[in-house]
Amino acid sequence: MSLKRFLSFSLPLIIMLFSFSIYVSISKMITSYEKTINNDYSIVIVTSTPITKDELSKKISFDIKEMKTLPRDKILADLKNDVTDGSFALLQVKLPYFYTVSLNEFPTTSALTKIKKELLTVGGMKSVETFSKDHDNVYSLFLFIKSVTVTMFVFMIFFTLFIIANQINLWFYEHSERLHIINLHGGSLLYGAKPIIKLAITSSVFAGIVVIGGVFYVHENITLIFEPEIANLITQSAIVYTPLEVATIIAISIFISFITVFGVLIKHRFK
């Protein structure tokens, strides 16, 4: 097994696994950020009559995490010096009730539109403010980042399959005479391809170890690579790999190698 061939197998796998690690890390970071935003995000509703969380929950189909009343006394106190006594007395009677509504999960743009429409159908509802412009900007950024990482990972899978398949075909070409002799003596193609299968397993495990080592190295030296704010966000959510995720990286590496090797074997078997 030459170093050149070993690296020709390992490097595409390493690149693909790093792209997968980036995808997993960004997905976890986005999920964590969504939770953070959801804790701060709320919808403001204005009603003509008082309403409680339980009463509102019975009239809508989505779940409410929390509902807070914005104190009318404070609003009236802020307005008292700006209006006449007569107007203030009228305001005390006519001033609607203000509430903030928090949701259980970060809503999609389409879900937020439906939520607003549904709230407006509730009796006594005067106004609903979802702050959709800010929400749309944030959520569009999330979707863009997810799309880029998924596209990159899928592209790297095809790139890896292409490179490894070419290397296997090259190996078959270089060892065609040896394989022919084995075939003449009754040996199977699988038996003759043992060296390339062994190379695939070795390269897969090596690539997985390199990527896992690289991920944990970045995690341990995160403050040297990123700004403190980004480093803190990544440390809390992204590059904290579970044993299952570590095993997944190794499994993907071996699976990609095996599916490529046996795909080429089947191709040569039916030539």
H and E order: HEHEHHEHEHHHHHHH
Q: State the end-to-end CA separation.
A: 26 Å
| Residue-averaged pLDDT | 80
Gross geometry: elongated
Q: What percent strand?
A: 5-15%
The count of DSSP E runs of length 2 or more, i.e. the number of strands, is 4
Description:
The protein has 2 domains: 3-36 and 137-269, no CATH class; 42-130, Alpha-Beta Plaits (2-Layer Sandwich), CATH 3.30.70. A 4-stranded antiparallel beta sheet has the order 2-3-1-4, with helices on both faces. The protein has 271 residues and is of the alpha+beta class. The radius of gyration is 30 Å and the shape is elongated. The model has no long low-confidence stretch (mean pLDDT 80). The two termini are 26 Å apart. The protein contains 12 helices and 4 strands; from the N terminus they run αβαβααβαβααααααα. Helix 6 packs across helix 12 and helix 9 packs antiparallel against helix 12 (243-269). Helices cover 74% and strands 9% of the residues.
In short:
The chain has helices at residues 3-40, 53-59, 72-80, 85-94, 109-120, 132-174, 176-184, 189-192, 194-220, 222-225, 228-237, 243-269, and strands spanning 43-47, 64-70, 97-103, 125-129.
